[in-house]
Automatic annotation (TrEMBL):
Keywords, in A-Z order: Coiled coil, Cytoplasm
UniProt-recorded name of the protein: I/LWEQ domain-containing protein
Record carries keyword NAD: no
Organism classification: Eukaryota, Metazoa, Chordata, Craniata, Vertebrata
Coiled coil: 1358-1385
One Gene Ontology MF term: actin filament binding
Gene3D superfamilies recorded: Alpha-catenin/vinculin-like, I/LWEQ domain, Talin, central domain
Compartments, as annotated in UniProt: Cytoplasm
Amino acid sequence: SCFPLQNVTHTPRETAQALKTLAQAARGVAASTTDPKGAAAMLDSARDVMEGSALLIHEAKQALISPGDAESQQRLAQVAKAVSHSLNNCVNCLPGQKDVDMALKSIGEASKKLLIETIPPASKSFQEAQSELNQTAAELNQSAGEVVHASRGSSSQLAVASGKFSQDFDEFLDAGIEMAGHTQKKDDQVQVIGNLKNISMASSKLLLAAKSLSVDPAAANAKNLLAAAARAVTDSINQLITLCTQQAPGQKECDNFQYKGMLDNPNEPVSDLSYFDCIESVMENSKVLGESMAGISQNCKTGDVSAFGDCVGSASKALCGLTEAAGQASYLVGVSDPNSQAGHQGLVDPIQFAKANQAIQMACQNLVDPESSPSQVLSAATIVAKHTSALCNACRLASSKTTNPVAKRHFVQSAKEVANSTANLVKTIKALDGDFSEENRNRCRVATAPLIEAVENLTTFASNPEFASVPAKISTEGSAAQEPILQSARSMLDSSTHLLKTARSLVINPKDPPTWSVLAGHSRTVSDSIKSLITAIRDKAPGQRECDSSIDNINKCIRDIEQASLAAVSQNLPSRDDISLEALQEQLTSTVQEIGHLIDPVSTAARGEASQLGHKVTQLAGYFEPLIKASVGVASKLKDHQQQMTFLDQTKTMAESALQMLYAAKEGGGNPKASHTHDAIAEAAQLMKEAVDDIMVTLNEAASEVGMVGGMVESIADAMAKVSAAGYTMTKSVTCPDELGALASQVTVDYSQLAVQGRLAAHTAEPEEIGFQIKTRVQDLGHGCIFLVQKAGALQITPSDGFTKRELIDCARAVTEKVSLVLSALQAGNKGTQACITAATAVSGIIADLDTTIMFASAGTLNAENEESFADHRENILKTAKALVEDTKMLVSGAASGQEKLAQAAQSSAKTITQLTDVVKLGAASIGSDDPETQVVLINAVKDVAKALGELISATKCAAGKAADDPSMYQLKSAAKVMVTNVTSLLKTVKAVEDEATRGTRALEATIECIKQEMSVFQSRDAPNKTTTPEEFIRMTKGITMATAKAVAAGNSGRQEDIIHTANVSRKAMSDMLTTCKQAAYHPEVSEEVKNRALMFGAECTTAYIDLLEHVLLVLQKPTAEQKQHLAACSKRVAGAVTELIQTAEAMKGSEWVDPEDPTVIAETELLGAAASIEAAAKKLEQLKPRAKPKQADETLNFEEQILEAAKSIAAATSALVKSASAAQRELVAQGKVGSVPANAVDDGQWSQGLISAARMVAAATSNLCEAANASVQGHASEEKLISSAKQVAASTAQLLVACKVKADQDSEAMRRLQIAGNAVKKASDNLVRAAQKAAFEKSDEDNVVVKTKFVGGIAQIIAAQEEMLRKERELEEARKKLAQIRQQQYKFLPSELREDSN
């Protein structure tokens, strides 16, 4: 009858089937019931369920037809509630359930006594009332234990137990009210009544939990919920007794009645203690219990009731601790058995929800109680806030963990309902706290109802079996191992309970010799049971039994290998004819590799994972029997006696090292606190690894004779590359015959390595034809190398022989060709891997092409070639993306298949991704350049797919041919998941492109996923390909600040255009930051501490930014003012992380850190840049005319040489000048005259600008001078241009000197050097001007004027000359005015210091 109740909410077909089963079950129950009324009630309630379910399916159908109709949704919810109610009625008609309901009703009726306004006066003495309360409390607690026990038995047992419980509760309630009559203060009375109400609610919860367990004993966590409810009854009783009297001798033994429940369910963990924590807990608590027992005995003799009560309390706590430790230890022992299966944690903890529900209900009851004092109201409000907050957090975690979208939504919605109703309640509590009026209390009562309902609904949903923990499956052997611990713990509890009862009677009547004798007997039993518990826990430590068994197995294997060694020594080792040597070597290799893989897991388990130790050592020992068989088999087939002995000895060494490892593991036992054993474990693991390495080396060497070699292709390719490079270098060395000897020797060494590995590769290649091809081509290459070396020797003897040189070059070319032939043969044998490499290269090219397309799109220049819409391309994109998913599956399966399938899969995926990028680019272009952001989103989506494919191909290449449990296989699966995620994201983006209302949201989701993937790459331990400077790192962090501002603005505006822009900016900013952060952190000069800080804050910044973007998404879905305000808090968190990143970047440079934005730093950079510019110009001059020796620019040179030498002198002098200015500027910063972070930023900034502009002018003028000198020498320019350029150099030099003198110390060394350099520039410029003027003067002297002899012609000649003179004068005047204007304009932009000094 339980089965359909769990399934009635599934699909209609399943519901119909479940109802059919329900009908049969209901008829069966009715038929077997002796009470006719009960049978009729069962059938009526079942009929109600049928009718309600029919209506439910009808309403569900209507809701599906019109999904947006609120009215139909509301009707559906109402009908669903009615069906749920009918189901509960149906369950309540089951035998035993009615009795529980009656008991619940009885408790409810009795609890009405607590609603009276005034407590009646006491009718008994205080001692009588106290004694009666103690007695009824013990009986009620015992009844609670009987209810727990009966809930696992028959329905009649539960009926009896629940009836007795309600009767005992009634008596206890009367005793409690009698006790409240004895309290003098009103507040104390209110507390007593409040505690009685709590006991009433806890009792109801216990009966409800017992009822649900009896209905469905297999329900997940039902036993734990029942135990928690029973414990709540005990706790609330103890609270009342403690409150009623401070001298309640021995009443806290009530606790012990419920501790047995922890031992009834040893297939579920009791706490988080490790096994060795359990042992420690048992030791500590047994000591406390011993002291408490002695105290109890002593206080019984003296009659000190108060001290007796304290000792009982201590004993009670110690017993609780002992029972918890015993329960947890027995669970760990059971789970650690190799045949057992460990359970796993559920999505939520129903006990936490149930406890929170109970606490909130009790607190709400106290809130609305008219007798509650202000302090009690405040305390109740605190309890409500604490538990609702915990529930909301639990919902948030559950929604993030679950993959079920319905459950995810439900958890989020439930959390919202709880939070909202709590907020409303808190408002009414605040009003009540200000004024305890009846109206405010009524408001408070009204506000508690929605909260209690929301919490009840949430607790019901959380108790769904789908979310429950899966208990461990303990094997028969595991259960047998648990029994000694459980037996000792139960014995301890029973004897402790009897001891405490006996002591209670003794404290009242200490002079009773027979009772003292009974007490002594119980005390001995407690002591013996604790000793046996400690012994049992120590003996049954997880993994010890398995370690002993594994040690026996390996000892047997060592004996077998010793027998084989003796046979081999006497050469009587029988050969195994049932299997080939190749198969044996394969078997041996794989076994040794598996043993090698298990060393670290065994070591880890031995140091701190006791529950895993048994599994791991059993696995390890299991490989040694096949290892010994394979090793003896290989040795038996080897002809060489020495090789035989080596194999057997190394196998024995490996077995002995494993034995040592197991002894160390047994000693460590998985105890993280047994640090004295950890060194021995690490040493044994190291020895075992060395033994594995030794036997693998021997295997590889021996395998060369039969071709059993893996992973040789790459080393062959390396050797081939070396041979090819050597041959190439040899052709280049024809001009240096001395180097040929060394090169010939290198070729010989490289080829000898190639030959060895080539033979092995030829044996392992598939098919055999390729193996033969590799062999013949390597041999051909050998002949080529012989000829090459011979010709090299001949050329060394006769270095000048041209014919031999030509022959050597021909031989080298032939070697290079043969190398390429060998490589092609190797690639044919390694076809799949090669195809993966080719495909990865193609994908890299596609990603680079997409980056270029993104640049075009961002610039607004990506347009379609013809008139087409995005809809024309959508189907094509979707179809190609689905094809790519199929290729992904082929790639993953190809890794485990042969090279042929892998090659096909790699080629197919490369082809498909090319097609996909092409169609996506066409689709993006069709969107149009007026929407560049959407274009970028679409291209980014396909870029993510391409990146994921690149990673997948790389992972496939690494995993090809590996075992299923190899780590590279896990990487392959992870890469495949990312690939599928990114393709799904692309499909969603494509569908959202034309939907203006969602495309921004979709872009943001894709960006968040992309940043998370970038983050996983960032957090991997792989070092980046290159490093970068802290300055570059800081520059990249600025993008985050800008992107954060845009994200907050987009969240506030809610416009899809802003969201898309934010998504694109965020993607680039975060990608750049993560890349440069890792590159800067891995710089060789950065310390380990700073590197870790940079990586930590980089991850923190990314996490904060992801939270910000996710909150923006939340704001888009539900834009409230409160949510928008939270955006600022998110952005502050990002800003804080960015600040930490910048400080870390500064720490990377240490004391040499300079702010790239500091004007003085910019000045120095510009000065050094100017110096470099001048030096480059000087080099240009050097190339104009080569010179044999240094010359002075004097009159002995001709004009061209004078010009060149003078220009060179100026270039050299200005270079020295700018470097001196740089040194002077650095000296000013060091002296503090210019702050590295200036106090007056404007003032120092102006000075720096003056220095920068002056340095730039010097560089520009020198460059112009060099061009003028070049043009002049070649006859293309006038001497006037040369003179003008030289004067400009002198003028700009003067300005640079002025700029440096503004703040400098005139007597400093740097200033003196600067002055000398300035004078040198001036002198060199003057020399050049003189030389040019002299040349111009000489040229004018040489000009001959032909005077016409005729009169008219002569007059015309004079007029023409005067006209030219006037024109030249006018041009000169205009040129002067122009120069003056230029200088005036430049003067305006000069800093104030330069203007004053210039004046």
